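Task card 7
Instruction: Convert sequence to structure tokens.
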Amino acid sequence: PFVNPRNCAAGSLRQKDPQVAASRRLRFFAHSFGRLEGAPKPFASHSEFLEACLDWGFAVTRERRLCPDIGAVLSFYREFREEQDSLPYEADGLVVKVDPYAEQRVLGATAKSPRWAIAFKYPGRQATTRIRSVAFSVGRTGTITPVAELEPVFLAGVTISSASLHNFAEIERLGVRVGDTVVVELAGVVIPKVVKGVLSRREGSQTPVRPPTQCPSCSGPVEKEEAFVAYRCVNPSCPAQLKRALLHFASRGGMDIEGFGEAVAEALVDSRRLKDVSGIFGLDKEDLLKLPLFAEKRAENLLSAIAAAKARPLSRLLYGLGIPQVGERTASDLAAHFKTLARAASASEEELTLVPEVGPTVAGAVAGFFRHLQVRALLKKLEEAGLNTSEPERGPKAGAPLAGKTFVFTGELESMPREDAERKVRELGGKASASVSKKTSFVVVGREPGSKARKAAQLGVSLLDEAGFLKLIG
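Output:
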């Protein structure tokens, strides 16, 4: 038997053989739609849509209620908790939604979630176990995460043997030590979490958890940056960071090396052919053909993509380096301001804060990154490999269709991710901004827009739907 319904459903849906998936007899409750076509008329509300689903023959949960006010929601929340364990399926709470679709559209959504719905969960099921030890995991940007190794305990269909402690400030807040008895729960019935220590069971043999002074992977220096709670390994060639760093460097938003995927990164690191991201540009056909992944044509295609990546603008390189606090937009802003890698790498925190939309926290992270000797050595290797380290002039150019125009995006686009749309704007001579002002030329409104659309209307800024934007960029 499967250990829990979640694993059963997820594994069944990933089956490559549809006959196996069909044999699992999966069922689902209809609860929302992505796009609706062919309905006699648009639905006015979510409850109206669910009733239509029943008419169409879809299953809809009976555990639902149209509530006139928040008091009724709280009442249903308490009532449903009593019924939770008697259901023929697992549930960890309710989802509370604004019913009228017109109000949902007004409320809009962030990039990650709607503003018109919220998960209203019950406290997770808990169990008691003991911390055997604390291991340290190193992430892509060098952040060191303490992980509690636990005496295995079975909880909600899962055997828990480890749980993230997140950071050392969290360890201090919990007051736990190695050897302590602790209460664990599954956050969202998925992620193991240490809730608290049972300090009454402490008898004196427990030992405090200390931040490491050396990286557990490469023995390089570990630093805690003043503005952050995390400790970081500052060696960009750290093996624990390397696979994820390579993937980020080669990603579409970075150096855009087509064909450099997860399997390739793992094979090159495991075979010790790469020690840092600069090694990508020293690969030859012989190196690749020694790996079982590659035949002649695939090796040639990857080498061509690597050669093409050398010409990418500075903004792509800055993003690909994985500088803490620096996403695609900030990398683009830094490149536009400093023009060359040398100027960006030598800028002081004060100079960095002169870049639009770069505050003290980001400036500190960027300056701190470039101060490290390992980073300086890596930049030198990249320059010696022949990479472009400058940013082309982006000022208004003759013939640039979006020269002098500033765009802000809100809501979800169907034709492309927002990052690609912003990149296209920059390629055509325009500027992509995060906030609406009187200087904004257009606000592009996608599905489920947020407050930016309302602010644009108040300021008299032109609104474009997705079709209008696509026409504008040709």
